[in-house]
């Protein structure tokens, strides 16, 4: 009988990193995490205290208060899309979090995806990117078969920006298509309607399996003001589409409740009726356990200079249960590491980029830089990804990649073909895949290692993540290449022109460095969330449990018959 050969992995920090370097790295990251927490708090404030007071004056809760009441006591909310629209102005106003909260929330012991209109931001209106953020959360729920809960309090589109929110393939109407897809897949949808639900805000809950309406809620295609103008009728929105209409007459809602608190209680009761979790079954008798090597070390393992290296093996050792890991093909494609570990007792596959220098097996006695994808490493990633898909093992991609190998030899070895093979498997896998951009996410390497264009369920960045085709300095050199010599020095002799070239290169480098800011990526939805390195393990626990919670919708083979055992057997030395 084949067993998963997990072995001790990693070492105490003192054996590979001196205290001075650790403290320097830790101070560097703590500054950035402090900024991260401050920016999270700003988003959570919505439009501020005055608007919270307006909500409370109506006898209602804010979106985040509703989520706090909904979640199981003592559990954490994992928000995604926190920084969508970060830094953008719409006239004189901002839309923190695009006016909607999307989060993984544990309810009655089951992970759910919650989508809640932020009623402190323009009465929960939809802004540019609000539909895309909602659709992204719906897709996460669909991919993991998690119940989706809508906490609806939405006055429709923010009309001054309607031209960028209403039309298009991911415009507001696409939300309702996602509602339909979730329904078609059999994913439970539950809606609580708490206030203004006008136009699209009224459509969003209708396809849900259960709809609860409070006494202050109404769902209308057009609000009272529009009807008054179009038909000269003096009615309130509650008269037109309140609970009296939709619970007792139209049947568009199921249950009428007095207030927010009762609605949340009823939603929790509905979630409890759903099938229980498959998590314990898929642990195969193991208990959830923390890593042996402390997760807090992660705040000091990453160098303050992005050009310096670290040992990704030690990162993995601080993410997996008991710091036990099964590395496959350890002697091939050394620029990457692939293998299996448990997270909260559940098996997860890991693919990660190594850093530093590695032996070059094709040129004996020489070294080559890791952090780059070569032929063997690409083939290794492809084989491992396919095997995990065949075995039903969720995959975690730990990216710190500078791109593919380039040059004459790389082309002769067919790296384009090997890369295409990896892209194909990652594009067609059925297993949940999760991507964590630890630091660099550059060029085609970012794509090949399940970057966001290849639709991982979630992509996380850290405060030191750098997403780009190439670094700012490299791009500046490429842009001004005709004016430089082989040492990248300006060859022009005219002082004025020379000065312009140097200034142009500096400006190009500065602009590209700004474009690589993780908050800019998060603002334009090029990554799902920014998290501190110390939070990577809790996020992994969520990913593991959410991947195994629902049963029967995908292949999950028992560990005795994994394809990975075949790879291991064929790579072992004979005799």
Task: Outline the structure in words.
This protein folds into 3 domains: 8-42 and 285-465 and 527-562, 2-enoyl-CoA Hydratase, Chain A, domain 1; 45-274, Alpha-Beta Complex (2-enoyl-CoA Hydratase, Chain A, domain 1), CATH 3.90.226.10; 469-524, no CATH class. Helices cover 38% and strands 18% of the residues. The model is unreliable at 226-233 (pLDDT under 50).
Structure in a nutshell:
The chain is of the alpha/beta class. It has three domains: 8-42 and 285-465 and 527-562, 2-enoyl-CoA Hydratase, Chain A, domain 1 (Alpha-Beta Complex); 45-274, 2-enoyl-CoA Hydratase, Chain A, domain 1; 469-524, no CATH class. The protein is 38% helix and 18% strand.
Task: Quickly give the structural class.
Answer: alpha/beta
Number of distinct beta strands:
21
The number of helical segments is 22
Query: What share of residues are in beta strands?
Result: 15-25%
**Oligomer status:** single chain
- Structural domains: how many: 3
Computed over alpha carbons, the radius of gyration is 26 Å
- Unreliable stretches (pLDDT < 50, length at least 5) are 226-233
CATH architecture of the largest domain: Alpha-Beta Complex
Query: How far apart lie the N and C ends?
Result: 20 Å
CATH H-level name of the largest domain... which superfamily?
A: 2-enoyl-CoA Hydratase, Chain A, domain 1
How can the largest sheet be summarized?
9 strands, mixed
Q: Using the coordinates shown, work out and report the CATH topology of the largest domain.
A: 2-enoyl-CoA Hydratase, Chain A, domain 1
* Shape estimate: globular
CATH class of the largest domain: Alpha Beta
Helix proportion range:
25-40%
Q: Would you tell me the overall average pLDDT?
A: 90
């Amino acid at each position: 009988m084949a067993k998963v050969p997990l072995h001790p992995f990693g070492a105490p920090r003192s054996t590979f990193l001196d205290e001075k370097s650790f403290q320097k790295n830790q101070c560097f990251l703590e500054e950035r995490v402090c900024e991260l927490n401050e920016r999270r708090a700003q988003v959570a404030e919505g439009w501020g205290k005055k608007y919270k007071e307006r909500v409370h004056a109506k006898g209602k809760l804010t979106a985040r208060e509703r989520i706090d009441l909904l979640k199981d006591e003592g559990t954490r909310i994992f928000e995604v899309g926190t920084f969508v629209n970060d830094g953008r102005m719409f006239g004189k106003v901002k839309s923190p979090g695009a006016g909607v909260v999307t989060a993984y929330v544990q309810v009655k012991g089951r992970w759910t995806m919650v989508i809640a209109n932020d009623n402190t931001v323009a009465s929960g209106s939809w802004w540019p990117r609000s539909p895309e953020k909602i659709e992204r959360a719906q897709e996460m729920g669909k991919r993991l078969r998690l119940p989706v809960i809508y906490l609806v309090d939405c006055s429709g589109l923010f009309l001054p920006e309607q031209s960028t929110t209403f039309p298009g393939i991911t415009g507001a109407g696409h939300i309702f298509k996602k509602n339909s897809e979730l329904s078609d897949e059999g994913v439970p949808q539950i809606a609580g309607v708490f206030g203004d639900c006008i136009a699209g805000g009224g459509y969003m809950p209708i396809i849900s399996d259960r709809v609860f309406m409070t006494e202050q809620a109404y769902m209308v295609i057009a609000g009272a003001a529009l009807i008054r103008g179009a038909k000269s009728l003096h009615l309130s929105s509650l008269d037109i589409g309140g609970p009296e209409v939709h619970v007792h007459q139209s049947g568009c809602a199921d249950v009428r409740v007095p207030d927010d608190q009762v609605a949340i209680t009823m939603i929790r009761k509905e979630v409890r009726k759903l099938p229980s979790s498959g998590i314990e079954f898929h642990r195969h008798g193991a208990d959830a356990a923390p890593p042996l090597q402390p997760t807090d070390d992660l705040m000091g393992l990453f160098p303050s200079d992005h050009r310096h290296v670290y040992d990704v093996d030690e990162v993995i050792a601080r993410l997996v249960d008991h710091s036990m890991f099964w590395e496959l093909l350890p002697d091939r494609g050394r620029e990457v590491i692939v293998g299996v570990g448990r997270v909260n007792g559940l098996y997860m596959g890991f693919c990660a980029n190594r850093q530093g220098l590695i032996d070059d097996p094709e040129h004996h006695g020489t070294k080559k830089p890791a952090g780059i994808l070569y032929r063997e490493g690409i083939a290794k990633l492809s084989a491992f990804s396919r095997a995990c898909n065949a075995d039903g093992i969720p995959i975690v991609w730990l990216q710190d990649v500078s791109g593919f190998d380039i040059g004459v030899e790389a082309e002769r070895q067919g790296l384009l073909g090997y890369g295409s093979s990896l892209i194909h498997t990652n594009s067609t896998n059925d297993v949940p895949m999760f991507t964590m951009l630890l630091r660099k996410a550059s060029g085609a390497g970012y794509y090949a290692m399940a970057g966001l264009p290849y639709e991982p369920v979630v992509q996380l960045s850290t405060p030191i993540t750098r997403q780009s085709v190439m670094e700012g300095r490299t791009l500046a050199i490429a842009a001004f290449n005709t004016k430089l010599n082989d040492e990248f020095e300006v060859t022009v002799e005219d002082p004025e022109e020379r000065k312009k070239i140097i200034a142009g290169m500096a400006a190009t480098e500065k602009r590209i460095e700004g474009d690589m800011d993780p908050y800019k990526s998060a603002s334009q939805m090029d990554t799902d969330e920014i998290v501190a390195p110390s939070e990577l393990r809790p996020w992994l626990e969520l990913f593991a449990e959410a991947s195994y919670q629902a049963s029967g919708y995908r292949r999950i083979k028992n560990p005795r018959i994994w394809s990975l055992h075949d790879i291991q057997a064929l790579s072992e030395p004979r005799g």
